[in-house]
Amino acid sequence: MFPETTTGIQNSNIVIEDRHPTNTSDHTLVTANIPMKIDKTSTQLVKIYTRPNWAKCDTNIYTSTLKQELECESRRKESSVEERIKLLEKSIHKAGKKSIPKYRQLKSLKTVGKGIWNRKISEASRDSKNAHTLWKRKINSHQNADTEKINLTSKKRKLRQLQRQAYASKKEKYINDIMQASQKDSKTFHKLVKQQRSKHDTNTDILYIGNKAFEGEKILSAWQTHFETLGTPNFDENIFDLERLELAKLQNKIIPELDIQNKEITKATPTEIESAIRKLNTGKASDENGIVSEHYIHAIDVITDEITDIINQIFEELDVPQSLKNGILTPVLKKKKDKTIPGNYRGIVVTSIFSKIFETIIKDRLEPELFPSQNTLQRGFTEGASSLFTAFIVSETTMLYKFLKIVLELLTLDAEKAFDTVTHEIMLNKMFHDGIRGDMWVLLKNIYTNMTLQVKWGDQTTQHVNIQQGIRQGAKLSTLLYKRYNNTILNSITGSHLGAKIGTICVASPTCADDIALLGEPQDIQAMLNIIEFHTKRDMVKINPEKSEVLCTSKGKNYQQKAYTLGEKQINRVDKLKHLGITRNVKSKVNTDERLKTGRQTIYALLGSGLHARTGMCPLVLCKIWKTYVVPRYLYGLEVQICTKADIYELEKLQRKIFRQFLSLPERTASSALYILLGAEPVETILDRNMLSLFLTISRLDNAIEKKILQWELEIGKDFTESFINRIDKILNKYSLPNPKEILENPPSKYKWKNMLKKAINIYWSNIWKEECLIKTTIKYLTIQENPTENPHNIWKAARNNQNDIRKAEFKSRLITGTYMLQTTKAKFSKNQISGICELCTRAEEDIKHFLLDCESLESVRLKQMNKLLSLTELKGGGDKANYKEEDVLQIIMDCSKLSTTSLSHLKANDLIEIEKQSQNFCHQMHKERTKMQTR
């Protein structure tokens, strides 16, 4: 409760309630009646519509109905664009209702807690209530209620037992669904795994704007106030230089009247429209009219001509309908921020699907015109580039300056609400000077005139908010327009010849979207900050000096610490900072501890107690989850940093520990066995692969600044040992691949390179693991599969996705890795204080051969299971079972796929898997019988 709502409290009556019969917890209910005066709030009925199930859509009915509807509306071409779009969407919904079962039905929300309710729990709950009534009756009449109390306790225990069983069944079903989906349905697999992620409630009951608090229904008005303020330009002369704005306004009024501007927009073609529709992302939220991308994609052949005609009408009339200017804005909380402050949210806008198609057409036409003048240091929202490219430039510059022993400062700038504060007049003026003329410029102006948004919070939306500044995060054109907006700053810094250089290549301000970093010697940094201050004031953009940071990444000789200011405020100097998700420090070392923590937290958040095979989930599925969700997070950005052997060892150590947990194997298990069984790559290879992937991506970009850096490093040669090109050279030599110069000059295709690298990695690790299998006696029976870094061992291939098979495979894994506790193992660990003689037959030492082939006490089980195994082997073409040697039989039991078992070397993979299944049954039955006899 908050002070605003607790005024008027008079007194309170606190009551400790009797324990309810269904209360199976250790807690007792306490109630308090507190009279209070608070504002009455009303609740709005939640209306949630089901998403159309496109898997059940009858495409023929959908397209034919839509075609018929479009043909019937002959008056469409005489209507306004707004009306035509509405009629189109109405026809789409009509076709959807006819072709998709239960199309957009109102969802009924399930009561919380009923997810596990069943008939048995219902009966047990009723019995518990009745027992409680009888006990209470006896207590109230002052009679002996001991019998009733015992009965009540029994009934409550039964209820709790059934509830736990229901939860366990639900969890088991969830695990089975994940395992089945991992093989057949990738989309469902990712959906199920994401359900397991911890869900943090980002909705808040209170918002603070300044010192004023907003609660209940007032939260919606708080959001409206916040985004209205954000969407209104600030004309404070003390903060911004308004001369640029006034000049832009004056020029923008003249531009439409210039004769040279009579440049019409080329008509859209059906091919363009079809391409734009295919670029739509599927599985996304519906727009405010209930339309999703699939509505257009499934009817692309029918709907393309109509959309082409509507868009050409817009191009001709230059009148953008209001429906294409509207959007639904959802506030998304930034990571680790206070959820009661509106400024800590990022406004993500969902625009109409038609608007996405329309803006894609415009974007595809503008990009080829604008790309040649884009600053080469802007790597955000650029085809073929990513944030790693910016991080690559920072890393290579740092390494070079360290090598040359020159002082280098890294300064990261924090732009305040960068997308939300773009001034429309200045943006349009910049587009004109960048070469966008004629009707296209007028069309852009009309798109950003009278733009509105509705803020969605929970199940409610605000009134339309007029947006006079800012570009919508989530709209197709926004990324392109923002790049042009801050292009002036980057060009000014590059043209000043200030800042860091690699050879003659200027790398002073590597940028990813609105994340600008400055690199330079101390004497240059302040001058670059002055340039940024000048342009941001003119462009009406705010840089927050308090959140901006500076770090010395290379101290060089005679380093003296300097202070830098932006305006009148000093930039914070730090020992480490995070830039584009990568932590950088004074010594340029990898933040290993932080990454290990990230890896552990991610896997436990996804799986929790399901991190072991014995919980019922197949290790191959667990490994897939690890590779898909965890590895990209905890190894992110290491390809552009220098990892020492110690760093790789620590990262590898975590992965091995997790794999042992997946397989339920002890710490003493050979590391190579873990990778062979799971068909997984060591961390060393993952990092090598990521580095090579980045290198190949750069080598295919002809005019990219990153490629120029690599070519310069190639010319420098081996002296600069820590350069990216020299590290790549070592990796290529390691896997016997072509040298960097060959690849840079003639990069192979993606398909060719993928196969080449995959083959090289498998050969490399296959050779290493074969040597280990020869040296280590614990894994001498273990076969290395073909393509071992991506091909799981037959032991786990043979295990179906159920708990019985997983237990058998887990036991077999212990046998083949030498971690199953036999008497000889106990004797070895106890330094012969425990005898190695078999406790069952007491005739010989109990090693693996004795246990599986010789122990007389297990003969009855052995004969039955051995006959099944060898008969199956003979049936599959493994030769006469009577001719098998003892060592061959043992190898068939342990791992029938080993090539040295010559009688089976010619069998197909499926036959070997069937034999492996039978050998797992054999080993498991032997284990059960041995355990049973030992416990007698």
TrEMBL record:
InterPro entries: DNA/RNA_pol_sf (IPR043502), RT_dom (IPR000477). It holds the Pfam family RVT_1. It comes from the Eukaryota. Transmembrane segments: none annotated. Residues 313-584 form the Reverse transcriptase domain. PANTHER family: REVERSE TRANSCRIPTASES. This is Reverse transcriptase domain-containing protein.
